[in-house]
């Protein structure tokens, strides 16, 4: 059984309100934060990208136990905003962290579920004991066209999970996936920003796939929503995860601990992984967690996770938990965001 040995999160300290973005483009949108369920979003600094954030998240993952990264035998880096179109991010991260060169390193891209896809893939290596420990990373500086509605919620953050078999703080009991060719979100190689299908991204895309993966897993494990203490879903905004949770039979009480989108926005591949980390920050031993990611294009990965008694000791030593990073913030003006966009994309 694959277990979570440790985890770490990195959330940039800069924040901006969606209403300020709307005003910058002369759009009079009444209660934009309330309508989206997003009141602030995290913004990467000019010297941060998906690689630097992934490194910071990994350093936070090893801090509680001073974990020896030399024991890592595989790393997956899930993102849709890799710094290079052709050049792996995973090897760059491995080099910065000083990982062994006897290493499987893979970049993954599947919109917002590339990070959880890595968890599924790496579980095969740990369960067959091909490697002892693995790193599964989800990191994104979420891309959005200036003035597009996507800009209100697209955030930046990273999450890293160290997977293995020994002394785990939580065990991955089972998982399932649901995938189809659904063109709700895309960016061709020569284009600077992604496009999306507007309302089409909801019902035939997000809801169909999340509910598909969730129902498959519940049937497979013979579990019901009431059997879980917590539920985490991918959070593209503040409305979709609440609605899909309600349709499946989960309660607001189960959803609330991992509901971070209202404070950091949607950091794509890191979204559901940070939600899981927020739950693990406060969960008790022997509690069950349901998690389901979503990636446009489209697909969803659902997991059943159960905490162990080792979690309490980890929580005591984890000084960089999700809430501490959410609270460590500095509000910025949209002019700083605009300058970063101009410098990065040369527009």
Task: Describe the protein in words.
The chain is globular and about 55 Å long. It folds into 2 domains: 3-169 and 312-345, Peroxisomal Thiolase, Chain A, domain 1 (3-Layer(aba) Sandwich); 170-309, Peroxisomal Thiolase, Chain A, domain 1, CATH 3.40.47. It is α/β, with parallel strands linked by helices. The longest helix has 20 residues, at 202-221. The strands form 3 sheets. Strands 5-4-6-7-1-8-13-12-11 form a 9-stranded mixed beta sheet, with helices on both faces. A 3-stranded mixed beta sheet has the order 3-2-14. The chain has a two-stranded antiparallel ribbon with strand order 9-10. The chain has 13 helices and 14 strands.
Number of strands: 14
CATH superfamily of the largest domain: Thiolase/Chalcone synthase
Structural class given helices, strands, pairing? alpha/beta
- What's the pLDDT, averaged over the residues? 94
Strand proportion, as a percent range, falls in 15-25%
What is the level-2 CATH architecture name of the largest domain? 3-Layer(aba) Sandwich
The H/E string reads EEHHEHEHEHEEEEEHEHHHHEEHHEH
- Tally of discrete structural domains: 2
Strand order of the largest sheet: 5-4-6-7-1-8-13-12-11
Instruction: List unreliable stretches of 5+ residues.
Output: none
Shape: globular
Helix content: 25-40%
């Amino acid at each position: 059984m694959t277990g979570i040995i440790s985890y770490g999160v990195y959330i940039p300290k800069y924040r901006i309100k969606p209403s300020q973005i709307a005003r910058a483009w002369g759009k009079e949108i009444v209660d934009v934060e309330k309508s989206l369920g997003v009141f602030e979003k995290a913004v990467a600094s000019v010297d941060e990208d998906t690689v630097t954030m992934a490194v910071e998240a990994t350093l936070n993952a090893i801090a509680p136990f001073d974990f020896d990264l030399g024991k890592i035998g595989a790393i997956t880096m899930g993102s849709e905003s890799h710094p290079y179109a052709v050049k792996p991010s995973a090897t760059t991260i491995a080099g910065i962290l000083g990982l062994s060169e006897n290493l499987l390193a893979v970049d993954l891209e599947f919109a917002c579920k590339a990070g959880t896809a890595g968890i599924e893939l790496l579980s095969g290596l740990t369960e067959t004991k091909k490697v002892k420990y693995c790193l599964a990373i989800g990191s994104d500086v979420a891309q959005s066209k200036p003035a597009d509605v996507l800009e209100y919620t697209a955030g930046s953050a990273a999450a890293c999970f160290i997977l293995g078999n020994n002394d785990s703080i939580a065990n991955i009991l089972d998982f399932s996936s649901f995938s189809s060719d659904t063109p709700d979100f895309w960016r061709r190689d020569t284009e600077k920003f992604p496009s999306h299908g507007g309302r089409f991204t909801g019902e035939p895309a997000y809801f169909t796939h999340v509910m598909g993966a969730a129902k498959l897993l519940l049937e497979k494990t013979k579990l019901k929503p009431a059997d879980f203490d917590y539920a985490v879903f991918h959070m593209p905004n503040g409305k979709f995860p609440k609605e899909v949770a309600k349709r499946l039979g989960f309660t607001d009480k189960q959803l609330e601990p991992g509901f971070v989108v209202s404070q950091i926005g949607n950091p794509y591949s890191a979204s559901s992984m940070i939600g899981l980390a927020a739950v693990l920050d406060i969960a008790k031993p022997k509690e069950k967690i349901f998690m389901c990611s979503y990636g446009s294009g489209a697909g969803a990965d659902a997991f059943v996770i159960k905490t162990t008694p080792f979690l309490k000791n980890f929580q005591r030593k984890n000084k960089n938990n999700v809430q501490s990073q959410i609270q460590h913030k500095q509000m910025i003006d949209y002019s700083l965001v605009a300058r970063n966009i101009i410098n990065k994309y040369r527009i």
